[in-house]
Amino acid sequence: MLSSLKRFLIGRPLKSTELGEQKLNKTKALAILSSDALSSVAYGPEQILLVLITVSTAAFWYSIPIALGVLILLTALILSYRQIIFAYPHGGGAYVVSRENLGINPGLIAGGSLLVDYILTVAVSVSAGTDAITSAFPSLHQHNVLIAIIFVLFITTLNLRGVTESASILAYPVYLFVLALFILIGVGIYNIVTGHVSPELHTPIGTPVAGLSLFLLLRAFASGSSALTGVEAISNAIPNFKDPAPNNASRTLMAMGALLAILFSGIVFLAYYYGITPSGEETVVSKIADETFGRNFMYYFIQGTTALILILAANTGYSAFPLLAVNLAKDKFIPRMFTVRGDRLGYSNGITVLGIASIILIIIFKGETESLIPLYAVGVFIPFTLSQTGMIVKWVKEKPKGWVPKLIINSTGALISFIVTLMFFLTKFEQVWSILVFLPIIIIIFHRIKKHYELVGEQLRIKPGQTIKPIDGNVIIVPVAGITQVVENSINYATSLTDQVIAVYIAFEREDERIFEEKWNKWQPNVRLVTLQSQYRSIITPLTKFIDTVEKKASENNYRVTVLIPQFITKKSWHNILHNQSSLLIRAYLLFKRDVIVATVPYHFKK
Amino acid sequence: MLSSLKRFLIGRPLKSTELGEQKLNKTKALAILSSDALSSVAYGPEQILLVLITVSTAAFWYSIPIALGVLILLTALILSYRQIIFAYPHGGGAYVVSRENLGINPGLIAGGSLLVDYILTVAVSVSAGTDAITSAFPSLHQHNVLIAIIFVLFITTLNLRGVTESASILAYPVYLFVLALFILIGVGIYNIVTGHVSPELHTPIGTPVAGLSLFLLLRAFASGSSALTGVEAISNAIPNFKDPAPNNASRTLMAMGALLAILFSGIVFLAYYYGITPSGEETVVSKIADETFGRNFMYYFIQGTTALILILAANTGYSAFPLLAVNLAKDKFIPRMFTVRGDRLGYSNGITVLGIASIILIIIFKGETESLIPLYAVGVFIPFTLSQTGMIVKWVKEKPKGWVPKLIINSTGALISFIVTLMFFLTKFEQVWSILVFLPIIIIIFHRIKKHYELVGEQLRIKPGQTIKPIDGNVIIVPVAGITQVVENSINYATSLTDQVIAVYIAFEREDERIFEEKWNKWQPNVRLVTLQSQYRSIITPLTKFIDTVEKKASENNYRVTVLIPQFITKKSWHNILHNQSSLLIRAYLLFKRDVIVATVPYHFKK
Description:
Two copies of one chain form a homodimer. Chain A is an alpha/beta fold. Helix content of chain A is 65%, strand content 7%. The two termini of chain A are 22 Å apart.
């Protein structure tokens, strides 16, 4: 039943050879890999204005130069990542690039912060989208957490079905959002050009503003840069592209950069020209749409697609997290299970872990994850900086043909990313300090896990020339609880393997011991019986002591000890709750604590 | 660590021979077995007045004849149960008496309703006691459920420590409560006799009251009878008494009856003489204490001990439930685990199940379990009626010396109990109907469980003259995932048992298959290797198919198939999460679904 539910939700299993069909073309890839970056247009411009308003509305014109700064940063990042795509065609991303060029620890810093970051992406974007929806239907507001969790479960299920299927479903909302904003920007500019908007609404560029500090401008710039989170996703996900993967990925990246640049500058410009003041109740995009269209169909179309894309931004995390986890797991920094492909050829363990972790975050923060945004932004800019720096080192070391322009591009990217990172720490320390605690812990765990795998590998390896001494014989111990068919079945099996069979009976009362011995000797005179008395009504303690004695003697003679546990299996599995589960306990205890083989002889009931 | 926490909470394990030391003397037995009955004095009289006030305060004098009725019922019950104690010295109680004399189903009705009833006792009395405490400290009121749960956990732990220990701790509050009420009643009567209380406060006995129906009087009587819940506890718990158990139990029962009669009539009389009107805010006992002492130390002493005894009333459930469960389990109507004595010689499974079930009830009803009181009372009077009826049948059938007076006593008891039961159904049907749904369901489950155990017993039994055919040989299948020390260890073991060893390798890629075969043939040329390809990356499916094929062939030759699973055991148990747990899955699947022996060969890492 459970397995047919699984089939229904995620579909039939796919053969390994069907992997190629699960790859993405450019249109779909753009939709699922850029939803995070594009969605940030919905809140990035607002972040800039929210900082500037702390001085005065006259300072709003500074949003234009700040936006230009963000665009320069965007260009540098896009060009840098384009170079990374071609340099690391098997899916680079910050982890691989930093590790290869800067060393293990910088790689782990990049990988660790991205890993945490994708969880934050999912939690933050789903919470934001849920907020947008429940703002429209206030009666649902009290169920925010539940609704957010349902969205996470939905997106997780989609991703477990496989990348192409989720891409097919998610492509529409992303393109609708882009279309909606294009119409908004187009109509807005048309209105301005045709003189329908009063130029009085905004202060001209260059108006002097009292009390504006460089610190504040930097802070506004850092806030605006949070709109660039998500641009690294494509470089992580190259293996998901159709061949030729690097070319397709690079074109998709350029397209995303162009879209992001247009939408971002359009919104910033309209906000400036309309003189929009950000407020807690209404988003900047909503105000612009209201000014442009009034509350008609187009307004609701823009609001609806914005809410949707905020939720779908989570999907970028689902594309990038499992692939990053595979890279870390291949290098043995996280458990190997992340490298296993599931029924639908997705890395299902990564997808599931991401879903669970983000649900936990949503529950802990009761769906109010907005305060995590700066943390999430700084968690992106650290790996940005590291990967660009890695590329600088690569160019300087390898000096391939035409390396100088490449070096310049990556150096610009690295410098700006570094400055933005610094600014986050300088201007928003109280919101981002926790990353300085978490990152070292995560990196220590990474190293511990790697060390463990190395130890295991070493202990598993067969040294050349090493030979194992054949076993000379076997002793089989059969704990028996009575004279039954189940015991008979086990004794029959044991005697077919060796002559050294010992049945062990544990008596709680002295009386019992004698009676059982008599019965046994009549029934199985050829099998040796040992009875043990348990004053404390425990089975494991006297049994273990006895096994230890036998084991000691056996190892002296190069014999091995097997404990054979008779077990009946009831016809319906829930019937097992009516029976003592001591055999399970005994088995687990012996396996972990003693060096004996434990075998279970099942006796299946027919009724 | 878990085990030392257990030691700290419940103490060192006791030997079976120490059982005698865990038995109760009369003083302690009275304390722990009568707390339920005695505590009902705190609410029984109030229940009568609450019914009478629906007519007028003039009707309050009827509380005196009603109380006389309750006292007659009490006397009949005490004398009847005294007879049961001697007739069933191994612990009778309603279940055993009804089953032996009236048949299985009446016995199960009595047993089933008592089983549920003890759970209700714990939930209701702990909730009531918690309410009494949080009424004194209103700031705690919002934590009612949590506090009640903590009390349940505390009482559960005490009982897991063993009966004498819990008796030692619980005896003080019970006797303090009795002392407090004795002082209250004594001082109250002294005040009345010395003329300090105005006789104007109450209407004289015999005053005609308009609008008083027989139905109402019966309802008041039924409500007052709820003060008698708990008197059956001693007859259930005879095995807990020191020898001679029946004599000690009988004396304890008489003492409890006398105390209950004195306290009950004293409170009813004072309430009548003082003209106390029950109200939602303050209990009748509190009002009497206030009238008698004012709000001085004695008042708070009475209130405090009352709250305590309400909570401790739960303990009666803990004494009676496990013993009833043992009786039902011995007759195979409930799982056998209830017959096992724990470390401290108490029936720990019964104690634990009772604790968990009552916590669940408290959580479901959010600590407001007052509405369950009638249900709980009717759940007591059904077994009362059945056990007295059973005794009637016994006397009539066996006709021992002097049986006529015994018959009369039990007949009176049976008749009155039956009338009270009927009255509950007639006057409070909306609160007790659910027992008519639950009881049949519980009885059906009892029969299903018994049937299952009988089927199992029959299948386990070795038929005389039946012989089992010795096995002719063994095939051992070893699933291998690589060429490692762990595999070498398992192969070494397998070849020591039989020549028929087959290693199975499951390849996810066709390439893999060939490479592995080559390596294997170089490494273990004498062990046959079978490689299987798994297109869907599942291990269990191809492995099971292969095992089925081998199994079919083997059973034709009277061979048995063993699947030997190589498993490494990491040094620290939490390290296991870093490794695939597929061996556990394979083992469980094969044991339940296939008729093969499953053995695990552990390889313990040293680092």
